[in-house]
Design goal:
By secondary structure, the protein is mostly helical. The protein contains 30 helices and two strands. Strands 1-2 form a two-stranded antiparallel ribbon.
Length: 516
Amino acid sequence: MKKIGLGVVMLALVSGGCLDSETPPAAPPAEALRAQARDLMRQGKTNEVIFVLDQAMSRDELSAARPAILRELLTILLMSDDVPKAQEKFLAVAAGGDKRTPQEAFGMIESYLAQHSRHAELATWCDTLLARNLGDPIAGSVADRLLQAQMADGKMDQALKTLAGLPVRLSGAAASQVVERLLESFFQAWKQTEIEQALGVVEKPPLKDLPGLAATAAAFRIRLLARASKLDDAERALLQSLDMLGDSRAGWLLGQVVGLARQGKNLKKADELCLKILAMEKAGAVLVRAAAEHALTVARDMDDPDQAFARLKQVLRRVTEPAAQLRLARQVVYFIMEKNKKETLTQLRDLCEQIVGKLQGDRNKSDGNTILLDIYFMTGDFDKALRVAAEAGNEESERDMNDMLLIKIRAHKALAEGNKAEAVALFARFMEAIKKMDEIRVSAEDPMTKLRVSKDEVLGLNAARIGRLWSELGENDKAAAAFVEAKRRYEEALKRAAQGSRERQAIEQALKDMAK
């Protein structure tokens, strides 16, 4: 046995379990064991400490502390590199029928061998354990370790044989979990050859016949095809496996296939697949919702507002629940608004009005009105915007926000009608309202640009707008003062904007535009 220092043994014996000096006071037998172990440690008698702990494992009065004692015993043996003795002690306890104690200590020997790259020893040990009736939680983990050890040792052929033999050594559920974990580990490391080899085993009996494993194999096959850029094959496999996969898994897999198609800029293929799913009457609710969401995401990728609006109308014919329709509409509303194509915006407004008109519940109606308000604002329909804003904000906590919103809408209405002096006065009132509010309530993400706008940036934007209006009215002194205010606010916003961020670039551009 390798000799270990007193300090190392002390560290092992006072860490964790019933031997931890910082735990609540132990029962007298455990306290006596601790005192005895410490006394032996002070004398450097490692073998005697191991003997005492070994004997303590069979003492009835220490049964509650047995998992902690076993951990400490294994710790010392492994620190001494006495792996055979540690294995012997573990198996002796496991053979005693106490499932809880070996479970508490499980993994210590396996981890030690793995950390020291002793793969062949680890594989032999795992084989030994699998021959014992240790139960699924441990047996499944042992099988994981065995496969890892065989692959780390370059024994892929042995690993595939182990994989094929899992149904003999584990229950069906445990075997399925081991297979799924193995395949997922290959995917995370993207080991295409290993995935192909493993699926070649899983897709045949006896693994194929395990409950649920055929669906698991189908799912991984679809992911493999998509990841390998074989999108036609992945689509075909997905559509053929829908009944086997189940609604939720099929919806998730659709996302995988569409996501990989988008990464490869194959938007047409992704769009076609989503439309095929939406056209299938047998498709479940989860899959339909996934197809609808991905179709709209792909439509945004195509950077065409008319295409996005066409897809929105298509998905709403299949997803008919009003709140779900609103969530889908939100995916493209601000994209379409950003493109500012008048005819498409008008159609979008009419469609959103229909959706909002069917909504139930205050929260849903509030979300719907927010979208309508933004659309009305973008289309210059300020009277409708004022009506919607006036109907909202009845809560006391939101009254100041709503008053501020009404001022802003009136200011833009005045501007649209050519009443520049009135617009200046209203924008000034808007700024005073903003100044009284805290940063958190004012700062928000612009739904179109996805940029977070700070309080100072909002004030700078409106001060610059006032400056331009004063200039158009021939009030040059007032215009100059407003531009000074705008510059000061923008510079304050710039101080808090991260270097290289899109927010910072937007502020810098605003300062350049103001200087023209």
